[in-house]
Amino acid sequence: MQFEIINKTIIGLSQNKEMDRQVLAYAEKINKVIPLGEIDFVYTHQPITIPEDVSEEFPELHSNLSESFIQQMKESVADFSFGSSPLSFHVLEGDVLLELVKKTFDDDTDLVIVGKHKKTTKHHLNQTRLCRKVPCHVLLIPENCHANFKNIFVPTDFSDFSKFALEEAIYIAMLNQGNIILHHLYEVPWGYSSIGKSYEEFAEIMGRNSMKKCRRFLEGVDHKDVSISPLCTLNKERHPYEDILLEALNTKADFIVIGAKGRTNLSALLLGSTAEGLIQTDEEIPVLVIKNKEFQFGFWEAFKKI
Asked: Of 68, 93, 95, 285, which one has the greatest count of Cβ atoms within 10 A?
């Protein structure tokens, strides 16, 4: 498998200077590892209600406002270097989520990069819904995170979607001399006592079986000389995403790469409850949500309803 070349990236800015600098610093560093192609810096604001008579008297008000936002973005971006990537700036007016999603479709975007606020308000972008709706990869940058890509954490359920995510992670690690932890979370099935085994005994059996599955899964992937360490842990009756995040923190992961799930026969793309839970609760580690464009289908109207 060859990593999908990124031709078009949207970086969403929020006019929160501290958060925007965090996002720009991270994007600058990742652009040195994986070229982001053409970069479009986008700010979306809610519609501004102006009385008709005022609007007629000052017809330049809207255009002046957009120009002001663009100038602010340019000033913020000027402190960072994005190499030879062509840069553009756009201001969108309307629903923050829908306008950004529509732009990803209109521009055939490959990657969206946005900041993740610890305390969100109704004016902040809903990252979970964004990841559901866009047809491309999404990189979420939490506040105060470090821009490192050496230790990459990849949750897996051995599906084709998690395999695709692993292959993308291998490419990132290869370019950055990084390593990968492939994590599988297993459970003890109900009814284990009927075969005369204790919970601990059956947990050990399931752990060995999971490790075998991990190694078999890795046999079907080109490692490209990247070090990949399988890690299987028991789900201790918490939500799976809580255990996944705990292991990512315990292993000092710099970066989480997780695959989205798709439905080939319906006009929708699914994250899956585990990915959604991870996005909602993780406040420390950047998360790259991987989507396979082969699973894109349907029309823009269908995605608006998800």
From this structure: 285
Asked if residues 26 and 147 have their Cβ atoms less than 8 Å apart, the reply is yes
User: Distance (Å, rounded) from C-alpha 150 to C-alpha 145?
Assistant: 14
The more confidently predicted of residues 135 and 191 is 135
Residue 58 confidence (pLDDT): 62
Nearest to residue 33, comparing CAs of 3, 12, 11?
3
Q: How does the average pLDDT of the chain come out, rounded?
A: 84
Q: How far apart are CA 39 and CA 143, in angstroms?
A: 21
Residue pair 75/20 in contact (Cβ under 8 Å)? The answer is: no
What separation in angstroms does the CA of 278 have from each of 141, 239, 242, 272, 292?
13, 10, 7, 10, 19
Q: Which residues pair with 229 in a beta bridge?
A: 181
CB atoms closer than 10 angstroms to residue 87: 13
* Structural domains for the chain: 1-147 (3.40.50.620), 149-306 (3.40.50.620)
> How far, rounded to the nearest angstrom, does the alpha carbon of residue 22 sit from its chain's CA centroid?
16
Query: How is residue 77 written in tokens?
Result: 């971006």
Look at residue 185 and give its three-state secondary structure: strand
Residues 6+ apart with CB under 8 A from 277: 239, 240, 241, 242
Q: What is the pTM of this model?
A: 0.86
pLDDT at site 287: 93
State the maximum Cα–Cα separation within the chain, in Å, rounded to a whole number: 84
With the C-alpha atoms ordered 170, 176, 182, 183, is the resulting torsion angle positive or negative?
negative
